[in-house]
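REQUEST FORM: STRUCTURE PREDICTION
Request ID: SP-0412
Submitted by: Lab K.M.
Chain count: 1
Length (residues): 322
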Amino acid sequence: MAENQDGVVAAEERLFCLLLALLPSDRGMSKLDIFTNVRGYRDEFRETGATESLNKKFERDKDELKSIGIPLKTSDTENPADAVYSIAQKDYAFSFTPAELSLLTAASAVWSESAHSVEANEALIRLAAADGKDSAAAEVAPRVDTPDVAYPEIASAISKNQAVRFPYLKPGHAKYELRTVTPLSMVNYDGRWHVLAFDHDRDAERTFLLRRIVGKVSTPDKVKPAQAPDNRAADLFIEHLDALWDSLSATVRVTPKTKAAVNLANRRGTTIDGNTYTIHYLDEAVVADELCEYGDEAIVLEPQSLRAAVIDRLRRLEADHG
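STATUS: Completed
RESULT:
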């Protein structure tokens, strides 16, 4: 079999190939694995080995993936050469509408005729899995949620290390607050985009839910970025969110064989004892909104603050539509 020849590979193509390589790898890949197998690196590696230029290209690509919210993690090792790179599928969820699936499948068919055929065929398998035609492959198929309106401006601010200002609506408040921040990292966690940023008004790091940015993101005058970007910001942010997720839990009585039973059982970390489910969450207001959708299929027992939040929402719904 003839060797694949990559030729000139555009940066965005190389990033896509790196993403495709890392997603199905349960144990991750070493830098040598990536240089040997991934389009955009392999030809240069075969010709010149692991040069400083190739290593810098890989470091830039890692930072670029993190800047757009992809939770690429690096294992902790004494020797950097032994590091393993991975993308946890539980932290990176994508979904497509039927129309989007159709367009992407057609695009992959065209792409498969080019030098990208190996990558295109793998992408096509994933698309078929996302459409439910292959249940085994569906477990590893990437699913992408459409970013919130503020996503492009926040991603750009991270890449440029730039301060921004936006109106932010906190849960339970009727009026937004203007927040001036330097975004440090953005990750998709529990199906929602979260932003870690340095809040200039509070002189401290804060976490923001992207969906709560309710207006235009602007660049403020005379506000300098808080600090130089940290290459490990995304990793540290995910570790923080993991710890927060593990620390917040609720006890819920669930009606068997209902939508609530299926969805809550499939949440990460859920434990089940008969009809009593213990679920984890990041944000009380967000999980209260979700639980309201299930009506009497899911009754919150603890904590009392979450129970009260759900009851309050249900009463307001009844008053609005009763």
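NOTES: The chain has twelve helices and eleven strands.
Reviewed by: T.R.
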